[in-house]
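Researcher: Good morning. I'm working through a list of sequences from a screen, and I'd like to move beyond sequence-only analysis. For each chain I'm collecting a predicted structure so we can compare shapes side by side. This is the next one on the list. No need for commentary yet; just the structure.
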Amino acid sequence: MSVSPSHTPGPALRALGLTACAALTAFIIWTTVGVRYPGQIMYGISLMLGLVATFALKPGPLAQRFPASDQALSWLLIILTLASSGYYLVEYQDIAAFREGLPNRHDMLCYAVGTLLVLEGARRVEGWTLVAITGGAILYLLYGHWLPGVLGHREFWLDEVLEVSYSYQGIYGIALAAVVDVVLMFVILGATLRHTGAGDFFNFLALRLAKGKRSGAAQAAIIGSAMFGSVNGSAPANVMSTGVLTIPMMKRAGYQSRFAGAVEAVASCSGQLMPPIMGVGAFIMAEITGIPYPSIVLAAVIPAFLYLLALSGAVAFEAGRLNLKPEQSGDEPFDAKRRSQGLVLVAGFTALIGLLLAGYSPTWCGMSAAAVVLVVAMLLPGTRLSLSGLRDVLVDGGRDGLAVLVSCAAIGIVIGAVSVTGLGVTLNQAIVSLGEDNLVLALILAACCSILLGMGLPTAASYLMVIFVAGPAILDLGVGLLQTHLFVFYYAVLSAITPPVALAVFAAAAITGDRSISIALSALRLSVVAFLLPFAWVFHPEINLEALSANNLPMLVLTVAMMALATLAISAANVGFFQRSLKGWERLVLAVAGIAALTQGMTISLAATLIILLITAKVRHSAMIAKPDSEAPS
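Model: Good morning. Structure tokens for this chain:
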């Protein structure tokens, strides 16, 4: 980030910022249960409140050296936000009816100021990376006609660029719409779970499940981070929430500090890939594809299982390599408070899943689940909230969503630039032409595009941007609609642990005190399977369970069994341990065979699986000869 997180706004700014956060929460709830306004009103008011809160609560460029000047700048930006947003909200009907494509001077001023405000808001919530991407899109609109060949486009005048940026094609486009229509309600649900204590129950349950296992500390981190991250929707925030408990616990158990940080970072990503909520990814996907929510959840089940299996296997093999003792934590009693938290959690999730499967909209389901959580929590003494607790839910419901709200508004400019210049078509043609000769190479290019464009961004913003850039090309290569969106979404999630801008890794480094690059390298090793999984369902779409029937069930079971074995083989090769330390050639063979079994067709996968079975049988036999009195499994 560009500024010190220690910045504290003045009392008046802080009061205004917290009020704007509470107003944003109230507005989202009101438009869900009360009056549904036209899109431009919905998105305009939400963005206005989000920018006011951002400028009031987040430090500006002068915060470290000139705090008084920085606060004055924040007040100025807030006034400009109210003026530009207010003008757009009042004039939007006339603009749409009479002045679209022919903006007057007041419109131009509003567009210019509004765009600059969104850029500064994006810098405050996500740093310079997002500003560089968005600013690059604006420069491309302005000067791209000077570029040679296919990268060039027709000349756009300044008024056209500003109109594209500050319109339904840009800032008020599909990215901001997805956040306001879907994401913010689940941010509110997450704040409700956290403040009632139901979120803490995840960690308690994880420690109980992992007790007595040699890799128990790390397994608890995986289970807790995956469950909490599914609701949280942000890998860096999840690391900071659960990592302060799990990373020291793993270090005490005997894991290296960098390994512990990497486990937490990778596990925090897994929550966004795990059904039923997927960090609201499933709802956004359903919103923009039209694919029913249950189909998306079903499609994500097996990939999420393989992701968690790979990470769980890696920490178990590492525990065996280090010869750690079984974990003895998790003795906290299941008292009345924990029972209350468990009941609140079960009630909320039962309401959420039940309503989703009944066909209600995701926003209504999220609001209903939040209401159930609050009602049940207030009925039970262990989770009952005071008036200040209810106020905190209202405030944090808006505050927790600021980053994704403002960043997705900025990403709208990128989507608009890609659309109106034809750059998306150019990139799609490049990927498709490459795929005519080699599908794998084309998919690798699309994956790199997803990771590079997603670095430093919230998952929702990254996914929404990349799906409009690389998604059509993957579809043109013959990949199914659901597989394409899951492909892009997975890499958008994994950008949080991919150097150089690996936000989940930075969060883990802040807790461990280790260099971020060492944690990032360990995280990449632990997540090899995660990077391969999107290729697995491209070549084995049956694992997405779209056409599940009694006839193809035996083949599906065989495919999943092969992939699970391949996943564990890759994890063992990464760690260099399975029952005993593995030799170099054994690690190489297991890794190559595992990758082949995971990503190739049935014939090659069967051959690779046979090789894995032969190698593991040989290793197991030699380990039993060397140590007849083997230790307990890890």
